[in-house]
Design a protein that fits this description.
Mean pLDDT: 96
Number of helices: 18
Distance between the termini: 19 Å
Bound molecules: flavin-adenine dinucleotide
Strand order of the largest sheet: 7-6-12-13-14-11-15
Number of strands: 16
Largest sheet: 7 strands, mixed
Strand content: 15-25%
Shape: globular
Length: 472
């Protein structure tokens, strides 16, 4: 590496690490500066409740991690990353004591969705069959000329619709409820354009990849990425917050795994007034309130089918979930919030002491909310699993401010790096995407395309662009 060109990355989230790996692959000498004592951003595992209980601080379930074109190109298995698939990707309990279970195989799913099976299959099969072609196209800025125009035109035609419009194709309220939960990952109101795209993508990934969890938790993804980076000659420096990029003069390239507000804080002196104004207009999305649980037993679901899935969506019918998401979009707190819950210890015994369990749950709230949602989250869990509170050994709740204090990118509790409405889907965070007004400075966080989720593709594309700018 002596004499190699030097680059640095600010922030060691999955996008920062992906960017660092691309830079190192291109022969640059790379250093990553991470503010927190441990690497990974929202991809870390910690003892957050009791000794021996390992909780994912941020992300927990990884359809896009396992299906990421870039991560799939890396030898992460060699560094200990192992995906675990629960028998079914998702369960969605209902008030009648049953659950809609989304099976991994599309044929099994179609069978279990009864009268809606054919519509479900027709909607998803072309994309499930072509995930390897679809993923690189959707996990990047919108291409002017797609590589697979027919597939993309077909996807775009449906994906632009609202979740409500797509759900109206289903006859059964059960299928509509299932689709509402999938689309609610968008943080959009379910009658908003693009909300359907998230529902589609979540469903396609459930069948095309599965919704796996990593053995030993999120940390094993970060550890594998860090190990690979080290092998390529890169270095990660934890507890090294960058307060100003003016301290990074020795680097030819600076990639920032931060959101626009933070970039303005650490680099305003390097940016043009026009670009600053554009970043100031960037909008953050709703936040989340999150709770981690140490449990004495598996969750006592009324519908025991819920024990087949690492992920459970709690919110009841399409209408209820739509009302919950609409309230949040309008800046209000839902009385009966849609809750996303993961129960990883059912499938990975490294997460809790023998016979004990962990659970991870969150609901959406207005950005920066200071309202304590713990009781509302637990009421929603109790609704489908009476007796839940009796098995809780310990709990730790995170307000948006608590989350942001452990990862500065979680601005106001926004876990997606900024609102993902139509405008910020196309211009994320500006029409320049990864480039800024300073030619050596790039953004590589989830505030760039393709946005939130653990896939590393923001970092991958940003670093590709950065490398092209210095190596011609
Ligand atoms: C509660 C929660 C649940 C989620 N669930 C899922 C899920 O199940 N599946 C999924 O795919 N995604 C999920 N996500 C979203 C996913 O984790 C994020 O989209 C992803 O981590 C974004 O990666 P990133 O690299 O852009 O940013 P981050 O992971 O946020 O990393 C940014 C890093 O930069 C560091 N940093 C910031 N400023 C500075 C500075 N000035 N100097 C040095 N370092 C700095 C931070 O400390 C942090 O380590 C979840 C997120 C949260 C919080």
């Amino acid at each position: 590496m002596t004499g190699a060109r030097k680059a640095c990355v600010v922030g060691s989230g999955p996008n920062g690490l992906a960017a660092a790996i691309v830079l190192a692959q291109a022969g640059l000498q790379v250093e990553v500066f991470e503010a927190e004592p441990s690497s990974g951003g929202a991809v870390r595992t910690m003892e957050l409740t009791l000794p021996g209980f390992q909780h994912d601080f941020g992300s927990a379930v990884y359809p896009l991690g396992a299906g990421s074109p870039f991560f799939s190109s890396l030898p992460l298995r060699e560094y200990g990353l192992e995906w675990i698939h629960s028998p079914a990707p998702l369960a969605h309990p209902l008030d009648d004591g049953t659950a809609v279970v989304l099976e991994r195989g599309i044929d099994d799913a179609a069978k279990s969705l009864g009268p809606d099976g054919t519509v479900w299959r027709n909607l998803l099969q072309p994309f499930v069959d072509n995930w390897a072609k679809l993923a690189p196209e959707v996990l990047r800025p919108i291409p002017l000329v797609p590589k697979h125009p027919i597939l993309m035109a077909r996807f775009g035609k449906t994906a632009l619709l609202s979740a409500k419009a797509i759900a109206s194709r289903f006859r059964c309220r059960r299928t509509q409820a299932l689709f509402a939960g999938l689309a609610a990952h968008s943080f959009l109101a379910l009658d908003e354009l693009l909300s359907g795209a998230f529902g589609l993508l979540m469903a396609i990934s459930a069948h095309g990849i599965g919704w796996p969890i990593p053995r030993r938790g999120a940390q094993s993804i970060t550890d594998a990425l860090c190990s690979h980076l080290t092998k390529l000659g890169g270095t990660v420096r934890n507890s090294s917050r960058v307060d100003s990029v003016s301290a990074l003069l020795e680097y030819e390239l600076i990639l920032c795994d931060v959101t626009p507000r933070q970039l303005l804080r650490i680099a305003a002196q390097r940016l043009s007034q026009g670009y600053i104004r554009k970043l100031q207009r960037y909008r953050y999305g709703p936040g989340v309130c999150k709770v981690d649980y140490a449990l004495s037993a598996p969750i006592p679901w009324k519908a025991s089918e819920c024990l087949r899935s690492a992920t459970v969506h709690l919110g009841g019918s399409f209408e209820e979930i739509a009302a919950s998401e609409k309230a949040v979009r309008a800046g209000r707190h839902a009385d009966s919030p849609f809750v996303l819950l993961a129960q990883p210890s059912l499938f990975d015994d490294s997460r809790a002491p023998a016979g004990k369990h962990t659970a991870w749950a969150y609901c959406h709230v207005p950005n920066g909310s200071q309202i304590d949602m713990l009781q509302r989250i637990e009421t929603q869990i109790e609704r489908f699993a009476p007796g839940f509170r009796e098995i809780v050994l310990a709990r730790r709740a995170f307000s948006p401010a608590n989350l942001e204090s452990m990862d500065a990118n979680l601005v106001g509790g926004d876990i997606g790096g900024g609102a993902m409405d139509l405008r910020q889907f196309v211009f994320r965070p500006t029409r320049r995407h990864y480039a800024t007004s300073a030619k050596d400075l790039f953004l590589c966080s989830s505030s760039t395309p393709p946005g939130g989720g653990v896939h590393g593709m923001c970092g991958y594309h940003a670093a590709q662009m950065a490398v092209r700018s210095v190596i011609r």
